[in-house]
Structures are given as C-alpha cells and as structure tokens.
Write a structure and sequence with these properties.
With 377 residues, this protein is mostly helical. It has 21 helices and three strands. 66% of the residues lie in helices and 3% in strands. β2 and β3 form a beta hairpin. The two termini are 35 Å apart.
C-alpha cells in the first residue's frame, strides 16, 4: 500500500503524516488504493474518526459521496465516476461488464467464454477493453493461467447494474451450470498429475463453487445442487487422501495445502441442509472407494461423515445453524447475516426459527444467553 495514501488521509484530520498511521492502513486496503475513493474517504474524516469511517465503508457507494465542488461532476462521487465510465462502454462491453460481476474472487478466460455464450470469439477483445479501462484486473497464477478479477467496489457497482438489467437470474444460472461442469471434471482425472492440476484450480474456485451451490439451493434446483455437492465431496476425498499420503511421506507443505483445501470444501457443504449434504456424500462414496480403496477411505474419513437428516436430534444444531447463531450473538441483523453467508434473508429467518425451536427460546437475547451459558459459540 502506498504511504502517500495514508498521508492523504492523515492530512484531513490535521495529524502528522504517519502518526497513528496503522489506523488508516485498513481504510486504504478497503478502498483498494483507488485514488478517487481515497480522496472521497478523506473528506469524510472531517466528521468521522478512522474507526467510524472503516465501519461505514461497508456501504462504499453510498458513503463516498462528498467530493469537492470545484471538480467535474463525474468526480464528485464514486457512483457518478463509475456510472460515467460504464456509459462510455459499448453495448457489448456493458453486457460483459455486468455479467462478470456474477463471479466471486475472479474467474478464468474459459469461464468468461462460457458466460458470454454466442459470439464468444469476441470475448477477448471486450475483456481487453475492460482491462484497459481499469474496470477489470488481470492476474496470473503460479501455473501461468490468466485470472480476471474485478475490484470489490467496481464489483459492487457491476452487481447493481446486473440486477437493474433483469439479467441476474440468467447469469447466475449460467454461472452455476459452468461450475457444475467444472466440478464434474474430477471424474475424468484418473492420473495423479492431472488430478493435482485440477485440484489446484478447484482451490482457486472455492468462492465461485460456494456461490453456485448456494444459488442452486436458493433456486430450489435440488437435484442439480446435490450433483454439485457430490462432486465437491469427491474432491474433498481426493484432497484428504493426498494430505494423508503427504504426511506419511513427510511432505508437510503438501499436506497443509491439501488439508486446508479439504476444510474449505467441507465448509461449503456445511452451508446446505443436512439432508442434501448427506445424500451428496453418500453418492460420492462409491466413486471415492473405487479410486482410493474402501479400507483407506474408512481409515481417515470416519468421523467426518456428515450427519443424516434422520440421525439429527432436536437439541443438536446443524453446522449452518451454528454459523447463524454465532453471527446472531455478535449482534448482526438478519440482512447482515444473509450478506455474510451469501444466502437470502428468508433462509436466515428459517434458520433462526429452527434455532429458537431447538434451544427452546423465543428471542435473540434469550438465544444469545443460552449460547453463552451452554458454550455453543
């Protein structure tokens, strides 16, 4: 992070540059170093402390609106600047920009072409235009694969454009089906080298896989969601097996990588209903057994098997309900919990009702007291 960004923020409160500069570093990181965003945030420091400003930046497009009046109108708020940049795009570039906001934590060129649909041969030109206009960033993985990332504030603006265009559902469906097809590739990777290469890509796509699974569940496409869940469990088996072998061979770096990736996938699966999680697991077991051997599989997977819906007891919270309870006791509203967990507010309310029923309480304060007294969080 450029020290000059912190100097600019400090100057608005009359402090010496670098004095208590650690207060400003999180703000600069949150604003992703965008010069205009930093200028607009600095103006807010006339009223807010750094800590208060950081809390407000959860609504960046609404907060960053106090630009100087002696600059062009398009530079007076972040939203106006982004709108101005968006209006300069061609119709095809606008459409691609909107649809790219459906990805989480970036995507590959292959994923862009899948989303683009007909005329995908033109996608490279339009991606290049978005990169040149600083609406998209290109990064490269260690394996040399191009990855496209939209800065968070621009992503937020793009998502709003996608909603207003009426294209959101179609884009989310295409996104979900692409990542289902991506996950199904694990079945065609029998060779260890090919499997390891795919698992490396899978780790980078965890956020997109989570978003795809959540959308399928929200859209009540349960068979497709279960199929995706089955593939994620199969990947989990592969990661866990690799971790076990790596530990036996003394390769602890590889063991740590594969173990961490396995935990990420298990966390994704814990977000869905126990019944779906269990069915997906059961479907993945035969393939995993044929690849790894039943004895090896049972040796390290036993206690990690998800609980079936029929074995759940009224007093036991599911993993997802535990996450909701933790956020609820932290004081988050249902809307904030929904945003944090990437689910709908309606789904959160269903979980809250279930938590109340299982704990025998009827209010947030009672649930919070019960959680602390019984060490549930």
């Amino acid at each position: 992070m450029c020290p000059g960004d912190q100097v600019r923020l400090c100057s608005y409160q009359g402090q010496r540059p670098y004095h208590r500069r650690n207060l400003y570093l999180p703000i600069c990181i949150c604003l992703e170093g965008l010069p205009l965003a930093i200028e607009l945030a600095a103006a807010r420091l006339r009223l807010l402390s750094p800590q208060e400003l950081l809390a407000w930046l959860g609504q960046r497009l609404l907060v960053l609106t106090s630009g100087a009046k002696d600059v062009p109108e398009r530079q007076q708020t972040l939203l106006k600047t982004l709108t101005w940049s968006y209006d300069l795009l061609s119709a095809r570039e606008q459409r691609l920009f909107r649809q790219l906001s459906v990805f989480v934590d970036g995507c590959t060129l292959e994923a862009v072409e899948a989303l683009y649909g007909a005329g995908a041969e033109n996608a490279l030109d339009e991606v290049g235009a978005l990169v040149e206009k600083n609406l998209l960033q290109r990064t490269e993985t260690a394996s040399g694969e191009t990855r496209l990332v939209m800065p968070e504030m621009i992503h937020e603006f793009g998502s709003e454009c996608l909603k207003q265009s009426g294209e959101m559902e179609a884009a989310q469906r295409t996104h979900a089906l692409y990542y289902l097809a991506f996950a199904e590739e694990i079945e065609q990777k029998p060779a260890e080298a090919a499997l390891l290469e795919w698992l490396g890509r899978c780790e980078r796509e965890c956020a997109n896989l989570r978003a795809a699974l959540c959308w399928l569940v929200e859209a009540e496409e349960m068979e497709t969601a279960t199929r995706l869940g089955e593939m994620l469990w199969l990947a989990w088996f592969a990661y866990s097996h690799i971790a076990e072998v790596a530990v036996a061979e003394g390769d602890f770096v590889k063991a740590a990588w594969s173990g961490s990736a396995a935990q990420s996938l298990q966390k994704i699966m814990s977000m869905v209903a126990p019944s779906l999680e269990y069915v997906a697991y059961e479907r993945a077991v035969p393939t995993a057994c044929s690849r790894l051997g039943e004895q090896s599989l049972r040796a390290w997977s036993g206690e990690r098997m998800p609980m079936s819906a029929s074995s759940a007891t009224p007093a036991k919270l599911t993993a997802r309900e535990g996450e909701v309870l933790r956020l609820l006791t932290a004081g988050l509203t249902s809307a904030q919990i929904a945003e944090q967990l990437v689910v709908s507010r309606h789904t959160v309310n269903i979980h809250v009702s279930s938590i109340y029923s299982k704990l025998g309480v009827n209010s947030r304060s009672a649930a919070t007291r019960y959680a602390f007294e019984h060490h549930l969080i």
